[in-house]
Amino acid sequence: MVLLKSLTYIAASVFLLNAVSVNAAPMNEAQPLTKRGSKLNGKFLHITDIHIDPNYLEGADPDSFCHKHGKKRSSESGKYGALGTDCDSPEALVDATFNFLKESITDIDFIIYTGDTARHDRDDNMPRSQSEVVNAHSTVMKYFQTAYDTDNVPYVPTIGNNDAYDHNDVTKNDKIFKKLESIWKPLGLNLTSAFSTGGYYVQDVIKGKLTIVNLNTMYFYDKNDDVDDCSSSSSAAAIEMKWLSYVLKHYSKKKGHQLYLMGHVPPIDDDGSKLYKSNCYTQYMNLLGKYGSTISGHFTGHTNNDNLNAIIPSSSKSKSYSFLAADDSKAKNMKKQLGKTSVGLFNAPSVIPKNNPALRVYTYNTKNADGYPIGTIRDWDQYYVDLDKANGDEKVEFELEYSASDLYGVDHFDGAGVGEAILNLANDKKARKLYKKYAKVSS
To answer: Which CATH number do you get for residue 418?
Structure first.
């Protein structure tokens, strides 16, 4: 088993551009492979929502997004951020985060970054320019390259709702795709025409065994008014959904080959509301249900919160699927449905201090083991910074907040394991209380 720099090439440009039948699109897996090294540690990093802001001012008024000092110095906006405000991440916090990664998270096989690199474009007195967006992407890319040898530790990024030039708006053939393709070129990613026209791609991380399907969830996102719902067959969202369906169908036929799905925006918010356009949401949930045995993990960010959800059948007779949140009060009475969980949705908390800053390290199967296929999530360690303490001490210390196996009482987070984990939570009042605390990163 080896890690790869670039692999599985899906030549899907015909239907990406013209929305022709996806069943006719060829699959070309002959792209030259670059070896990453022979040793796998069975761990990978998930980091999300960095939102670096070079304009952040310590002591500034949070009402100015920490860009301007008020009459009095604010005690909220410390050196490393302003907890729970609309201020973005100061460079000092980003520096400290990557120093921790470089010094302490050294035994990972690859990195998934679920997007949102640039600061929010909230400040009318300091509009975000296109060059600032590009600089943010270049800066964060350099942070990763400094912390890790990305020739041997693959770094797989995605596009968030603040990563294009206009907040929430990403179109077909968006200009940011070509710019990111240039910035990410040293990574050797599999950025084919699927990326240059649609912002999505596939990337193997274990040769011929484990592939990441990197989605552009901005096309599905209900706040992206520039893209129609999936019910419109010519929309960028519908074309991507057809592509995803084709990819899932293809890999489901490859025995022993598992997939990770990653993207920025999850299909559901932490309060249970839908974040995808209506028809896209329905199609997406049904694909997760149908191909759950091929999907070993589903990873998102965006909400800043730490959440776990299960994809379950809508009813015993229906072929449609819905979700159940880990803290849903109905879970205790849904043992049968949870026993049929297709896949778990893992939403990781963010670096930006809307809650305490956080990052996550997953443990996964590097081969079929203990009756579970390659890619199966076996555990994760959630790290966080007590930001108030960090600002007071003028020193950032990442601490282990929890390990998933301890919180949920299971040692496998495939569909069955996630169903069991949610049942365990439903029957353990103390664990439910901890889950709610951890959802906000102990803030």
So the answer is: 3.60.21.10
